[in-house]
Write a structure and sequence with these properties.
Elements lengths: L4 H9 L10 E6 L2 E3 L46 E4 L3 E6 L11 E7 L14 E6 L20 E5 L7 E11 L9 E12 L46 E2 L2 E2 L17 E2 L10
Parallel strand pairs: 3-9
Antiparallel strand pairs: 1-2, 1-4, 3-12, 4-7, 5-6, 5-8, 8-9, 10-11
Amino acid sequence: MMYSAATVALLASMMPMASAHYFFDKLVINGQGSTDFVRQNTRPTAYMPTKFIKSFDNITPESIDFRCNMGATNKGSKATANVKAGDSLAMSLGVGAKMEHPGPGQVYMSKAPGSVGTYDGSGDWFKIHQETICKQGADIKKEAWCTWAKDRISFKIPEGIPDGEYLIRTEHIGLHGAHGGEAEFYYGCAQVKVTGGGNAVPKNTVKIPGVYKKSDPEVNFSVWGGNNVQYPAKGPGPEVETFTGGASSSTPVSEEAPASSNTPSASQPSGSAPSD
């Protein structure tokens, strides 16, 4: 079933705002969520999205702050989490929110040249995880998407990744307004120190900003053309990086996956992590 332009605009405007705008504020390790490892943004209204047009706070995907959000690109978090290559992690949303906009989720990493606490993310980024369509033929405005109604994006640290300190950037793109150039980007960065990895070198690297263009079909996709429309298989940005000795998958990481037997900890003193 196809919709007229006027109907599309009307339906899009009726999508609920309060329950659908959100921000990533916790890194979840072995089931425990903590804000200590996540760089906090300083936007007046933290949950508002970044867009190419009609954006908030003068941030677009072409801005430096598109790396980690306003106030978080050049300021580190309280602590850096110690994790191992192969560990299962997640970044979850604040204030009990869920991802109730249709669209893909992805996770990027960027290796700091030294301490990640002072790293501004100006180096290379590579994608380690992606979630697009999980239920082909279902309502593409809702539950067809792997991310729909979830409160987190779960992923694994690639097993072949070199040891070192990294920024992890988790992102969800809301496509309900993308037909009009208004894809909505929700994102945040966490700090980790990886050990037990390999020596693989990522090949599909990008810079942020620069990873997306306003003309990219993945961020100009219309969810209003019926449930049989096909979202681009590659997803937004580069392909998911594959490392020798361990590959990240575009399949969502099960939240029921067993926790690592070696509980990661903070590399700086911090309080006990609250239950997520």
